[in-house]
Amino acid sequence: YERNGYNFLGFLCLAAAITCWKKLPHST
Description:
Helix content: over 70%
Order of helices and strands: H
Radius of gyration: 12 Å
C-alpha cells in the first residue's frame, strides 16, 4: 500500500537522522 511505503521511507529517514545525530560531535 501507499501508506506502507510512506511509513517505510519515514522510518528510513528517521533511522538515518538518528545515525547522523549520533555521529555528530554534539554535547548534551
